[in-house]
Amino acid sequence: MPSETSRIEAFSDGVFAIAVTLLILEVKIPPITQASLASQLLQQWPSYFAFLLSFLFIGIMWINHHRLFTHIKRSDNGLLILNLLLLLGVTAVPFPTAVLAMHLRGPGARTAAALYNATYIVIAVFFNLLWRYAVSKKLLDQSSAESAHAISRQYALGPLVYVVCLGLVWVSISLSLALNAAVAVFFAVPARVAGSRSQR
Amino acid sequence: MPSETSRIEAFSDGVFAIAVTLLILEVKIPPITQASLASQLLQQWPSYFAFLLSFLFIGIMWINHHRLFTHIKRSDNGLLILNLLLLLGVTAVPFPTAVLAMHLRGPGARTAAALYNATYIVIAVFFNLLWRYAVSKKLLDQSSAESAHAISRQYALGPLVYVVCLGLVWVSISLSLALNAAVAVFFAVPARVAGSRSQR
Amino acid sequence: MPSETSRIEAFSDGVFAIAVTLLILEVKIPPITQASLASQLLQQWPSYFAFLLSFLFIGIMWINHHRLFTHIKRSDNGLLILNLLLLLGVTAVPFPTAVLAMHLRGPGARTAAALYNATYIVIAVFFNLLWRYAVSKKLLDQSSAESAHAISRQYALGPLVYVVCLGLVWVSISLSLALNAAVAVFFAVPARVAGSRSQR
Amino acid sequence: MPSETSRIEAFSDGVFAIAVTLLILEVKIPPITQASLASQLLQQWPSYFAFLLSFLFIGIMWINHHRLFTHIKRSDNGLLILNLLLLLGVTAVPFPTAVLAMHLRGPGARTAAALYNATYIVIAVFFNLLWRYAVSKKLLDQSSAESAHAISRQYALGPLVYVVCLGLVWVSISLSLALNAAVAVFFAVPARVAGSRSQR
Q1: Which of A83, C95, D97, D200 is least buried, going by the fewest C-beta atoms within 10 A?
Q2: Contact check, Cβ <8 Å, C29/B94
Q3: Which residues of B touch A115 (CB under 8 A)?
Q4: In whole angstroms, what is the distance from residue C51 CA to residue B92 CA?
Q5: Confidence band (pLDDT; 50, 70, 90) for D3?
Q6: Strand partners of residue B140
Q7: What mean pLDDT comes out for the span D58-85?
Q8: Hey, where are the domains in chain C?
Q9: Who's near C81: CB < 8 A, 6+ residues apart?
Q10: pTM of the model
């Protein structure tokens, strides 16, 4: 018998997979012009940068979603709706990504970077809501108590650091995006606790 | 052994996931112009509104589909075809959504809102057809009789309220869309009955 | 333990689901112009027609793929490759669909309809190759002998009728497309045989 | 109970399925012009060629991913991340494909073909990293030792031959792409070893 959460996972996998794959559609194909193709390709580095950063972010979100659902074993209507809110954030990512790629070298760079970081704050909040709901409603596997505590602590940091990223936009856009990437890497590593399944 | 309906669910999950993720492609990236990026981003609020409304709608349809298939345990050729009709409605949603986003502030607002509501009437009818077929052909889990009755009653309301939404378009477009959103929330909550699995 | 063909089915489900959902992207959003939105929407009926026809076709192909894999229980490298060829045909469908939608009322209507039917001939041939390979390599469930025979007979008709559809393009484009749609409906109904699982 | 790698496979299946299906979006629909539709369709043969080549490549990568995960039975955080890197390569494929299709007959043909081959080198390296990690961390099925050795040997060739393809671009673009296609076919056939499951 499939587990109670298997279809939530399947639907979420689909949304993550599509969102991450749609990102490439925002990288434009240079037309045939006087300029050499190589120089045109190099010139659109902000598109590659935004693609890579968002790929990293969505990919690591998927790893985290996967990790949470190794602990979440039961489902209810609230979980379905909170998971849907999280997916709303995920599906939106290609939009701020494309805005960032288009405006990173223009006068709208600050606005674009702020929108990008703001999206991540919202997603980090939704991740916390989903997880805390699952913990408080006791939807977790019984053996997950310790890991759950470690995850709760790690996740609480998420919205905070993304708020810092957002604030940094008015100091230095590059610094803000560099911190943003560093945070993604931080969440790729599982929360530190003995006996966590995802830590082997 | 996988259940008889598992591949129907997998295919449907895919279609729902893609339809919901494609919605973001209709939100246009503002080009670099004289106007500030921030004001350009704010100006296209109808795109965000249409995106959110359709995300909500498709997401809640997915929850309902999931809920129906916790009861539907057997499959036949008629169910495959009726499920396909429902998915036809789901895949179509990005089109009326984009039409609404484009025309909500133009002279075609009424037509766009009517098209939008008409799509939802059709989908609500397909949902009823699928469910009633499954009930009448006894494709349900044996323990589902009570829940089934509650779902049948709730679903019968769907086409009716969307017809009201459509009619309201000629009274007030805003009111029509507000009711439309309220209906989605109504269907996010499972039909009221004791012992339903999705009610915990 | 998942069955040996479960990942082939999952990947194929994904491809079918995406191909069928991408079709809607080819239906263009009318811009804001002098003309009324309603008349613009009506004018692009060939887009809706092509969308519906291709949705029907891909949907029914999925039903057939699902039906074949209720019989196919083992997998080998040849099956993987033939399944991939079939999916090549499926993923290509949005292109001839969009060509048909664009040119159905123009001077290129005959060419567009011929391309459309030619795609379906190729897919029908790939379906036959996949199925006959599975039969000849004894990859089927043991209880499937009778159904297998009925399917083989039904599928042999596929390429033939699509060749007729193609030929009809030079007689009457409408007739050709009408026959095309009728063939899809014919394949929605399972091959006639006693005891087939998909016949209930 | 689902296997430990089942959700990695589901997510990867989604990404492969989407990447392979998005390829068709890069094949442009000829507009209505003076020129006959047939001649316009024929003129864009580089688009079809690039579509077919990339479909072949992604499809065969999927077969290889499927083959690897018939051996990989356990998962850890490193495997998740290396799998993500591989998927990064897969999702990127539609971009060099579209660049190749656009520039194959223009002055940028060499650059486009070099970019195309370079993408494949990167993916081949990621495939090797994933596989070697799984071997070294003993994440394989116990019965897979012999097959594992054969796969390791076959995969080691991948980056090398794609480097040769890249070098050939400065000799003959056609030759380079022909070798590229031949390599794909080579990887469609499983590594030669007795007792491999995928060799039946």
Answers
A1: D200
A2: no
A3: 41
A4: 9
A5: low
A6: B72
A7: 90
A8: 6-199
A9: D63, D188
A10: 0.90
Contact D15, A59 (CB under 8 A): no
> Does any CB of chain B come closer than 8 Å to the CB of residue C21?
yes
Give me the sign of the Cα torsion angle B42, B44, B50, B56. Answer: negative
Instruction: Give chain C positions within 8 Å (CB) of B18.
Output: 17-18, 21-22
Q: Residue C42: is it exposed, middle or buried by C-beta count within 10 angstroms (0-12/13-18/19+)?
A: exposed
Q: Number of CB pairs < 8 Å for C and D? A: 102
DSSP tag of B72: B
Which residues, in sequence order, are CB contacts of A80 under 8 Å at separation 6+? A8, B63, B66
Residue with tokens 């997979």: A17
ipTM of the complex: 0.86
Does D106 contact A at CB distance below 8 Å? yes
Question: What is the mean pLDDT of the segment spanning D65-77?
Answer: 89
- Tell me which residue of A48, A30, A29, A37 sits closest to A100, measured CA to CA: A48
Q: Residue ranges of the alpha helices (H) in chain C?
A: 6-22, 37-43, 45-71, 77-92, 94-103, 109-136, 145-168, 173-188
- Distance of alpha carbon D41 from alpha carbon C92, whole angstroms: 14
What digits encode the pLDDT tens for the residues B60-118? Answer: 899 889 889 989 988 888 999 999 999 999 999 999 999 999 999 889 999 999 999 99
**pLDDT tens, position by position, B39-57:** 999 999 999 999 999 999 9
Q: Which residues are CB-neighbours of C125 under 8 A, at least 6 positions away?
A: C158, C159
Instruction: Determine the pLDDT at residue D52.
Output: 93
Determine contact, residues A72/A82, Cβ cutoff 8 Å: no
Q: How far apart are CA B198 and CA A134, in angstroms?
A: 15
Residues whose CB falls within 8 Å of the CB of residue C132, separated by 6 or more in sequence, listed in order: C152
Indicate the average pLDDT of chain B.
88
CA end-to-end span of chain D, whole Å?
Answer: 27
Q: Average pLDDT of D148-161?
A: 87
d(CA D175, CA D170): 10
- The token pair that represents B6 in the structure block: 């598992």
Task: Establish, for the pair of chains A and D, how many residue pairs have beta carbons separated by less than 8 Å.
Answer: 99
pLDDT of residue C3: 60
Q: How far is B171 from chain A (nearest CA, A)?
A: 31
* Chain A interface includes D46 (CB < 8 A): no
Report whether B117 contacts B161 (CB < 8 A): no
The pair of structure tokens assigned to D157 is 């060739």
Contacts of B2 in chain C (CB under 8 A): 2-3, 6
Residue among D77, D81, D95 minimizing CB distance to A24: D95
Q: Which residue of D has its CA nearest to C111?
A: D38
CB neighbour list of residue A70: distance below 8 Å, 6 or more residues apart: A141, A197, A198
The answer to whether A120 contacts chain B (CB < 8 Å) is no
Contact A44/A83 with Cβ under 8 angstroms?
Answer: no
Q: Is B158 on the interface with A (CB under 8 A)?
A: no
SS3 call for B28: coil
